[in-house]
Amino acid sequence: MPAAFAPVLPSRYDREPAPGAGIRIKSDTLPGLESVCAVDEGSVWLHDALLGPHSADIVRYLGLARSTGGPVLDLGSGAGRLAVPFARHGFAVEAVDRDASALERLEGWARRIGPHVAGLVVTHRADLTELRLEGSYRLALLAGAMVTAVPPARRPELLREVASHLETGGALALDYTAHQLPGLIAEPRRTWAFQVPRFDGIDEWVVARQVFDLPSMSERITYYTARTGKLSTERVVLTTDKWIVDPERLAAELHSAGLHIEGRRRHRIDDRTESVLLVCRTDD
């Protein structure tokens, strides 16, 4: 492993990881950070880097919004990766996230662009597992694999809540990473090492450990981060827990909520995983 990665080896945090399949250095297949514990302001750059591979979905979701119209519901909006560009294109957006600091960043970004954008964005702080909506929408988004951050036992209730607030002919669009079972069995532990792009004078390196648990159909990713400035180095450990999506179970839950899958798009990530985008319509 290159010497540059040495400062962030997990062993430096006094917690040696279990044996894995070695270190991968490939930025386009990094595991995502949809649901993270111990979020701090310094992790903003890491969040942005991990969401980077999802950035192309803005074009697809905007295209869908042009066919459905607004208002748009952005579930798990974070700091406005989708909500603010949607507002810039003239769509009224309700952004929902459980992280107050992320919503503050979203609102600040919208205000900096101008009142014509800020006036189109409404924020709503809520956990998706306890979501209660009041408005009606033409398009709802669970983008950036946010559906994998919702426990399977709570997912049907979320889908019913969203579907009940979609206008006639409205759509729910969501994406997730689909894992092939043989690949998970053969390699349940995976490791990535990468540098976080930053433009504030801080040098940040990360080792990410991804562990799949097949009995519970879940995964945990631990990010061991070292941020080095001119005078000191800060080490931070972040974790995110997600759920492995069973496509057949998800399809049944969507149907039970009164939605039918109108379109499905697959993008191969590697020989064992692919990204799946679903567009679901209300049953008229």
UniProtKB/TrEMBL annotation:
Protein's name in the database: Methyltransferase domain-containing protein
Organism domain of life: Bacteria
Pfam families named among the record's database cross-references: Methyltransf_25
Keyword flag Transferase: yes
Any single biological process term in GO: methylation
Gene3D superfamilies, alphabetized: Vaccinia Virus protein VP39 (3.40.50.150)
A GO term for molecular function: methyltransferase activity
Keywords, ordered alphabetically: Methyltransferase, Transferase
